[in-house]
Design brief:
Blueprint: H1 3-9, E1 15-20, E2 26-32, H2 35-41, H3 49-56, E3 60-65, H4 69-83, E4 99-102, E5 110-113, E6 122-124, H5 130-143, H6 158-161, H7 175-189, H8 194-209, H9 213-229, E7 243-250, E8 254-263, E9 266-276, H10 281-292, E10 301-303, H11 310-317, E11 320-322, H12 327-369, E12 376-385, E13 388-398, E14 401-402, E15 408-411, H13 421-438, E16 446-450, H14 453-465, E17 472-477, E18 483-488, E19 493-495, H15 501-535, H16 542-551, H17 555-559, H18 563-568, H19 573-584
Parallel strand pairs: 7-10, 10-11, 12-16, 16-17
Antiparallel strand pairs: 1-2, 1-3, 4-5, 4-6, 7-8, 8-9, 12-13, 13-14, 13-15, 17-18, 18-19
Helix pairs in contact: 4-11, 5-9, 8-9, 12-15, 13-14
Length: about 575
């Protein structure tokens, strides 16, 4: 039965549908209130260029009927996560927003976190970026005497002597001692800075009366810093409820989403997203929000436009979905919509041009190699120093963009970590594609290896041994170490126009693989050197060594460490002196 016949027989019921290409790979997953109406719409009437491109790649259709729209949404999300279809918008590389956490420990700390799934602790945010969150934590640590150290030292550290810590390391500090401090910090993070400002102003006045003008000036700067840090846009909604305001706008090509995070009556941060869409805009937004709130805390209330199906979101997110019609709430929603529209107008041509250039580059690369368009590319690069500490990296590009969460690092095990490029490539490719087979992972549309005949021969041997038929090419460099030409699986050389988009596309992948491999090699080499030096120092055991490795990122930093700072880590006088004497030798 052809897929067009399947469309005719689809039921008028909710469910999820999956489009497959000629290789049986799922390229798009959608959901619908009526499967028959939604899927039929792809094959009737005219469509824009991007949707036509999707339709041209459809070779088969599958669908699953569900009992409700909510079940259809849940199924759609699970299938997207399972298949990672190239035409679906994904959040795999979107970072979560930073929050400030008051840790739920016996001796609590104030820290920046992106992990919002942990229970039983106080979270405040989101913050627009990590710098804003860290600046706030820095302020709080300066004002309030909470614990600063990750591990408890054996004696009071500098923070205690500066009045910025209660020193639970040497004193018996109870939960009751911390209670008023925690309460003041929570008030501060909720936007009520009056108590803190009053306290600092009193301290500034007392310092002036004692003629301690430098200290008074420090208090003044701290007060100004607090006012700057907390000076976010005030929204007049007559309540302090946490809510998100979601506006979206679209044209024939792209969809733009704008989210305002309202916390304690102020806009604490905003989120913008612009992407291609292939389905009903409102349902695409619903899908995006379902993915978005799997990573971000769900507020008590969300404002949305009339086009969205509030009941599905309400049941999925278990929160109030409001569609404001008038007043201050409607004005705020209109502001989010306006921002989404402006973002769309500003970036449409740039994004459209970038997407089209990348798509053409992928298609051209496929034509040059006489293969299907490689929508998933896995590129490998090796790095070593005279054969020592050999490592390899794999970077992944999906739809022409780096998919960083799919990157992989490999420590080479061949020949006691002293390997030729040939042996390294052979080992790493075998490990990678044996895992692909065993775990039933996605096969790439193209494997790129950094190198020529040696590397291609190694790759061919691995693929043959695993009975895998995956397109392969080598990136061959010239004498100046610049990309020169491609070497195919059957050892045919393909010259590249150095001014072409496809050349720049390939170079970008190669540069990314090289960067990732070099960075990993530096880490391994540095760690190996560091460990070997510490192993040779008398009276430095494994626990102490681990503390030093966590505190200092290089031998040079350790050399410069004051004796007192080393002792704060728990080193004895003898250990600290041995360490500094050993490192001071010309090594």
């Amino acid at each position: 039965m052809s897929f067009k016949d399947k469309v005719k027989m689809m039921p008028d019921a909710p469910g999820s549908y999956q489009f497959k290409d000629k290789n049986g790979v799922v390229i798009y997953v959608g959901k619908a209130k009526s499967l028959k109406k939604r899927v039929s719409s792809y094959f009737t009437g005219s469509h824009d260029t991007k949707t036509s491109r999707l339709i041209m790649n459809i070779a088969d259709i599958e669908y699953i009927v569900t009992s409700s729209e909510l079940d259809a949404l849940l199924l759609e999300l699970n299938l997207i996560k399972k298949y990672n279809p190239r035409y679906n918008i994904m959040l795999t590389d979107d970072k979560t927003y930073p929050y400030i956490e008051i840790t739920n420990e016996r001796h609590p700390k104030v820290v920046v976190t992106r992990n919002i799934k942990k229970k039983s602790r106080a979270l405040f945010g989101p913050y627009p970026n990590v710098k804003a969150a860290r600046d706030t934590v820095k302020l709080l640590n300066k004002i309030y005497p909470l614990r600063k150290c990750d591990t408890m030292p054996k004696q009071a550290c500098l923070y205690y002597h500066m009045g910025q810590c209660l020193a639970p390391c040497i004193k018996s500090i109870t939960k009751e001692d911390y209670a008023p401090i925690i309460q003041q910090i929570k008030q501060f993070l909720r936007g009520d800075i009056s108590h803190t400002i009053t306290q600092l102003e009193e301290q500034m006045l007392m310092a002036s009366e004692r003629l301690e003008f430098e200290r008074a000036q420090e208090y003044k700067k701290t007060i100004e810093s607090i006012k700057t840090t907390t000076n976010r846009q005030k929204i007049n909604l007559n309540d302090m409820k946490d809510r998100d305001i979601i506006g979206f706008y679209y044209n024939d090509y792209l969809l733009s989403i704008e989210i305002f995070f309202i916390r304690n009556g102020k806009i604490s941060a905003r989120h913008q997203k612009l992407f291609e869409y292939y389905d009903d805009p409102a349902e695409t937004v619903e899908n995006y929000l379902a993915q978005f709130y799997s990573k971000e805390p769900v507020p008590k209330e969300i404002f949305v436009q009339e086009e969205l199906h509030g009941d599905v979101l309400h049941r999925y997110l278990d929160t109030n979905i409001v569609k404001p019609q008038r007043g201050a709430k409607r004005k705020l929603l209109n502001l989010a919509i306006l921002n989404a529209e402006q973002s769309l107008q500003e970036k449409t041509e740039i994004v459209k041009r970038d997407i089209e250039r990348t798509t053409v580059s992928m298609e051209t690369l496929g034509e040059l190699l006489n293969i299907s368009t490689p929508y998933r590319i896995e590129a490998f690069d090796n790095s070593n120093l005279f054969g020592e500490n050999a490592v390899s990296s794999m970077v992944v590009f999906i739809n022409g963009k780096p998919a960083r969460k799919e990157y992989r690092k490999f420590k080479v095990k061949t020949l006691d970590n002293k390997a030729s490029d040939y042996h390294t490539m052979k080992e790493i490719l075998y490990r990678r594609y044996y895992r692909v087979l065993m775990d039933n992972l996605d096969h790439p549309g193209l494997i790129l290896v950094d190198g020529g005949l040696q590397q291609i021969n190694a790759a061919n041997e691995v693929l043959d041994s695993l009975d895998l038929d995956i397109p392969l090419a080598g990136l061959v460099k010239d004498t100046k170490h610049n990309t020169n030409h491609l070497l195919t699986k059957d050892l045919q050389e393909i010259e590249l126009d150095k001014t072409s988009d496809v050349f720049h596309f390939i170079t970008r992948i190669q540069d990314e693989a090289h960067r990732f491999a070099i960075n990993y090699h530096k880490q391994v080499r540095s760690k190996g050197l560091f460990h070997s030096i510490l192993d040779d120092i008398p009276k430095i055991g494994p626990v102490t060594k681990q503390k030093l490795l966590q505190k200092y990122k290089s031998v040079q930093l350790m050399k410069l460490a004051p004796l007192e700072e080393l002792k704060e880590l728990g080193l004895t006088d003898i250990q600290a002196q041995n360490l500094l004497e050993y490192l001071s030798k010309d090594r």
